[in-house]
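Anyone able to model this chain together with adenosine-5'-triphosphate?
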Amino acid sequence: MSILSLHNVSLRYDPDGEPVLEDVTLDLARGDFISVIGRSGSGKTSLLNLAAGFLPPSSGRVLINSRPVTGPGPDRAVVFQDDALYPWQTVVENVALPLKLAGVAPAERLQTARRLLDSVGLGEHGQRRIWQLSGGQRQRIGIARALAARPEFLLMDEPLGALDAMTREMMHGLILKLWNDSRAGTLLITHSVEEALFLSTRVVVLAPFPGRIVLNEPFDFGRRFLSGENPRVLKSDPAFIAARERLVTAIHDEETV
Ligand SMILES: Nc1ncnc2c1ncn2[C@@H]1O[C@H](COP(=O)(O)OP(=O)(O)OP(=O)(O)O)[C@@H](O)[C@H]1O
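re: yes, here you go
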């Protein structure tokens, strides 16, 4: 089983300055869905950038299956809040792009891209241009594209941050279904405690200055949703409400843990 690991990782942007992350240890395995929450400046995006291989740690190790990560790779797909789609290409061409870069033959990559577009409910929109779509549709395409090359890990930085509440809720169900189908080990950075709690098999809270893990707890609300439980009922479950309070307290109270 593939595991993306951060072992005792610290990060300084300024070699003489304070660390942005200090002694962070976290394992993301296939089938995991880990959300990272925390106050602004706690190092969430920096943590994702280390996992993606965009940045090297100042100390500690970032490993995939015990081998050092030396840069970005096709085993890790990244989705940002601002979708990086190409407006001059059609929807289906955008989704097929990672397969084109991987050298997959045109017929096969179009077939895969169409299947992914169907899975995000946009099968009818393949020939449209990106500018003809709503923000929620664009994020669905961004996630479909990220999954096209079957990455082992999906790293998402606030992918739903710009969406309205209703679209966001719809996206939660979709993200859980795609995660369940792909089994890609998923790391989600979010500002929404409820989103983290509803989606994740594990929620990690970072406290700032220096960024460090102050809470790391498993949850099963996403799995319960996938087994057919109603999301509104799940979110009013006393266990959900109590967990939300614990997470909010951990974010605002550095004495936790
Ligand atoms: N490229 C950079 N160079 C120098 N400092 C940086 C850089 N990127 C981030 N920082 C600093 O590192 C700290 C953590 O930033 P980071 O973006 O990882 O936090 P975050 O938790 O994702 O914040 P937010 O919730 O506001 O997006 C902040 O103090 C930020 O100013």
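The domain at 3-75+153-252 is CATH 3.40.50.300 (Rossmann fold).
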